[in-house]
Amino acid sequence: MKLQVALDVAQLDQALTLARQTAEHVDILELGTPLIKAEGLDAIKAIKAAHPDKLVFADMKTADAGELEADLAFAAGADLVTVMGAADDDTVRGAVAAGRKHGKDVVADMITVVDDRVARIREVSKMGVSFVEIHAGLDEQAKPGYSIQALLDDGRQAGVPFSIAGGITGESIAAVQEAGATVAVAGGAIRSAQDPAAAAKALKSLIR
Ligand SMILES: O=C([C@H](O)CO)[C@H](O)[C@H](O)COP(=O)(O)O
């Protein structure tokens, strides 16, 4: 299982610092959606230039114009780009077409898909995405009674390649791997730690 750090900060200098602190312990550097919105697509270029040996994940969360938006992110240097799993099928297919053009990967972010999630995961997988991200966003995580378990259950059941994002910590990362995830995405557990490098290293050490 790969480890992906989500650089969920709003300024490029902060993202470059967090990337520098954590890169040696992670496989994938994710530009979070707020960072892309604040700094634009040039932020993708800057992170890739600083870490050419790492996979760079642009969390575009594209909801429309899939081919155009994915094309822009790939052209800026992204290796993986997200499209919303809840988007129109043609939006997903458009992003996949851009991925094929660039020889790169598209990930369907399943955030906000709650009802019949397994069925939608299987549908978007057939549209050619490389894997799905089964994801509870920050607002969903803040609701009382939130548990990552439902994400893991759906991953097991879906039978397609998947990543998990939803407040992964040192306590939950082993269960994420046991569920069969190919990537564990960690944002807050690394970003909010006193020592982000140590937090990333500790998470990586828990992956067998
Ligand atoms: O994608 C994310 C969220 O929607 C904000 O953009 C986060 O990067 C993702 O949820 C991982 O962060 P944590 O949940 O804090 O681990």
TrEMBL record:
Lyase in keyword set: yes
Enzyme Commission number(s) from the entry: 4.1.2.43
Taxonomic superkingdom: Bacteria
One family name in Pfam for this protein: OMPdecase
Biological or metabolic pathway of the protein: One-carbon metabolism; formaldehyde assimilation via RuMP pathway; D-fructose 6-phosphate from D-ribulose 5-phosphate and formaldehyde: step 1/2
Enzymatic class: lyase
Keywords: Carbohydrate metabolism, Lyase
Residue ranges annotated for the Orotidine 5'-phosphate decarboxylase domain, each copy included: 2-203
Catalyzed reactions per annotation: D-ribulose 5-phosphate + formaldehyde = D-arabino-hex-3-ulose 6-phosphate
GO MF: 3-dehydro-L-gulonate-6-phosphate decarboxylase activity; hexulose-6-phosphate synthase activity; orotidine-5'-phosphate decarboxylase activity
Entry-linked Gene3D superfamilies: Aldolase class I (3.20.20.70)
GO biological process, one term: L-ascorbic acid catabolic process
Family the UniProt entry places it in: Belongs to the HPS/KGPDC family. HPS subfamily.
Protein name per UniProt: 3-hexulose-6-phosphate synthase
Species of provenance: Saccharopolyspora dendranthemae
